């Protein structure tokens, strides 16, 4: 029986390996949607490859719509990455208050999972980044700057998603970032009408931050749940108060007539 000649496995092209590495960096959030990639020379040095191989990898990514090269302006990650929730849907969800509770339930599920894995997996670099976001939020809270606070609140929660090291979870939350930011802004504006609420919300964020830093996943998940239950309870109470005020006004108008 004659033996078949040995056939060498087809070697992977260098440009394909570079492309895969860049894709991984986009997926794990190293390069975010709309962000400009480092210069060609810097990337070639980082990957220890030739510039022609790097250029070929970027061309392949551009052909797939993952990046876009602007003439004389560098290469950018597509701003469509993670935009699975379109603007019309965002507008619809944001303009109907009855869906606010659906958003809170969704956040409870996803962010609870995110906090759980962040407590398990956060690296020293992740913890340094999370500390930076937390301290910025703390400062905005001290200054009682509601607009800045809502922005930094959303960024704090997104930082936790990055610490979880689950790209599906990260991009699901990132695709909802605009809705999340609007939701947080609306929630804080309503909550902070009650003077005590601002301090209570920050105490909840502190508990969440400390649980992740201490590597306590169940405590981190419970902290997310407690925070969102607090928000939901207060919003429901405020709605009931609004409803009572509206009924009183209607009765008063009828009596005047």
Short characterization:
With 257 residues, the chain is mainly α. It has helices at residues 14-27, 40-47, 51-63, 87-95, 100-121, 124-143, 146-163, 167-175, 177-191, 195-213, 217-256, and strands at residues 67-70, 74-77.
CATH topology descriptor of the largest domain? Four Helix Bundle (Hemerythrin (Met), subunit A)
Biggest beta-sheet profile:
2 strands, antiparallel
On the 0-100 scale, what is the average pLDDT? 81
Q: What's the CATH class label of the largest domain?
A: Mainly Alpha
Binned, the helix content reads over 70%
Q: What is the count of distinct domains? A: 2
The secondary structure category is mainly alpha
Uncertain segments are: 1-9
Main sheet: strand order: 1-2
The N- to C-terminal Cα distance equals 108 Å
CATH-defined architecture of the largest domain: Up-down Bundle
InterPro entries: GntR_C (IPR011711), TF_FadR/GntR_C (IPR008920), Tscrpt_reg_HTH_GntR (IPR000524), WH-like_DNA-bd_sf (IPR036388), WH_DNA-bd_sf (IPR036390)
Keywords: DNA-binding, Repressor, Transcription, Transcription regulation
Function: Transcriptional repressor for the pyruvate dehydrogenase complex genes aceEF and lpd.
Organism: Marinomonas communis
